[in-house]
Amino acid sequence: MLIQKFLNTFFRKNNIKTLFLIDILYMKDLNAIYDFRNGDFIIKQLKHILKNKTKELIKKELQRNVHVKIKNTHADVFEVLIYDNLNIEEIKNIKNLIYENIVSKNFRLIKNHSTINIDVTIGCAKSNDKYLKIYAEKALYNAKINFLHYMYYDSFLFKNESVNENLLDVLNYNVDNNLVEPYFQAIMDNTTDEVVKYEALMRIFDKNGQILMPHVFIHKAKKCRLYNKLMEIMIDKIIVYILKYKIHVSINLDYTDILNPHIKRILIDKIKNNNVGQYLTLEILESEKVSNYDIVNDFINRIKSFGVKIAIDDFGTGFSNYENILNLNIDYIKIDGSLIKKIDEDIYLNLIKSIVLFSKQQNIKVVAEFVSNLKTLRYVKNVGIDYSQGYHIAKPMSIEELFGEKN
Fold first, then answer.
1. pTM (whole model) above 0.90
2. Do the beta carbons of residue 201 and residue 185 sit within 8 Å?
């Protein structure tokens, strides 16, 4: 038993851990308005919430045995330390759980039995070294100065801040060396439980071979006019992999891509010249930036003439009414992950059911994103959604991970 306890402690200390820092907003104002005794009483209540209800909800959400340590590090700052390498979807789910569990709570005052609500800012990071708290503190600081309620940073970026500062060099390095790679996340047929296609997600690499995620480099790439080159390399590689492995692949486009004559031209030319239209689905990101649906539909009709399927991505965030969907010649609707994550809540379940019913009436297939656990998958299947995608199905993988060989 002692050996097992030692081993558990050793692995908890040396494996990657995920840290959330929770800072009460405007604590000085709360102390000034309601006095310090009430301020201390609010902190005491928050500590009780985090150490009891929130801790249990975290374990329930992750659906595995994890060690969770919660403590009050400063007067108005709490740590939630999870001894596990959470993936990005799990981090977002836990963040939402922590945030909603706090801001929905009525905090009691000492004397007059009245209650108030509080708000918090959350910073998150994960690492296996002693600087984990520094990374999370930097995330928290950046969230606060940007007036955001949450921010996450990968510790790798903090260990190598020169990557961020010299991102232009990294982008040019990837273009010059043809390093841009699609990572493939499986999409499963809910009837057969078989993977039927993959969504291609862009990844680039620094000079040490470390992966950089799109949120780190996409804005800079567009600003520096390198985005077109990155996209062209990725499309070329996707076509090579389609021809070799006969896989069906989805590629993401947003409204600006459709307006971009260079991207439109290389996409259509490469699809036509390689005869791969039947293997491709283009996912058009639903966005408020869409101002001209005629342009979108003209592009859709042109690209579909080569056998390409069309999906509307993140449905529920931009194409705000069903009439717009009726005017687009599409094959799939991908329900926004923010809805799927809350599918076990009646209001969201009913909304999802209405989307599924509408889609079936229009002969449009439905894909659920952010299917991160078995419970969500069961809900998704029960409401009649055709396909599932998310970390419960599979994480994004390189072509080597999928097929065990380098192209």
1. no
2. yes
